[in-house]
Design brief:
13% of the residues lie in helices and 47% in strands. The chain is built from 1 helix and 11 strands; from the N terminus they run αβββββββββββ. The strands form 3 sheets. Strands 1-4-10-6-7-8 form a 6-stranded antiparallel β-sheet, with no helix packed on it. The chain has a 3-stranded antiparallel β-sheet with strand order 9-5-11, with no helix packed on it. The protein has a two-stranded antiparallel sheet with strand order 2-3. A hairpin with a 2-residue loop joins β7 and β8 (133-134).
């Protein structure tokens, strides 16, 4: 059998080239790169701390709000007509959800939140805590640009509560409503 050296060298060169191209092409798929520019979205809602009830102190940091000063007597209740407000920067819908209630919940009778517009028309209500259970909240609330809604809180402790009892309520406002 006669071996054609010229043809063999061509074949080996083509084979080596194919392997080199295949290896180089495969390496391209091992590394992908992405650059993304991330901006700050304007909020459609913001916390409103004007004309709050006496003793209520909010700490607002952008989308986050922490309220202190809410309390009710042992075996009784207290209502805060405006513990905090929500102002619409644009027409939108939103949900308000009870995320968690922690602390001395066994001594807590209930916490109810009612939402009212500037004309004192009820926009909905929900229990944050009732019958030893966390509530759910409200969904698909529609608010117009520049409207301010107040959140009225009613808090009631059982007679078993004492001055060292407290609870921490975590709510989440999602806009737009999914």
């Amino acid at each position: 059998m006669k071996i054609n050296i010229k043809k063999s060298l061509k074949f080996i060169t083509l084979l080596a080239s194919a392997l080199l191209i295949g290896t180089a092409s495969a390496a391209v798929y091992h590394h992908l790169y992405l650059n993304a520019t991330i901006g700050v979205a304007a909020l459609k809602l913001q916390w409103d701390d004007t004309n709050l009830d006496q003793g209520v102190t909010p700490n607002i940091q952008g989308a986050y709000c922490t309220i202190s000063g809410l309390e009710a007597p042992q075996g009784g209740s207290a209502t805060y007509n405006k513990a905090i407000g929500i102002k619409a920067i644009a027409n939108t819908t939103f949900d308000i959800e009870v995320v968690d209630v922690t602390g001395n919940t066994t001594h807590l009778d209930y916490i109810k939140i009612e939402l009212y517009d500037a004309a004192n028309i009820s926009k909905g209500q929900f229990y944050v805590w009732q019958n030893n259970n966390k509530g759910s909240g409200l969904t698909d609330l529609s608010i117009l640009k520049d409207e301010v809604w107040r959140l009225q809180w009613t808090i009631a402790w059982k007679t078993t509560a004492n001055p060292s009892c407290n609870v921490v309520v975590s709510l989440k406002v999602t806009t737009p409503s999914p």
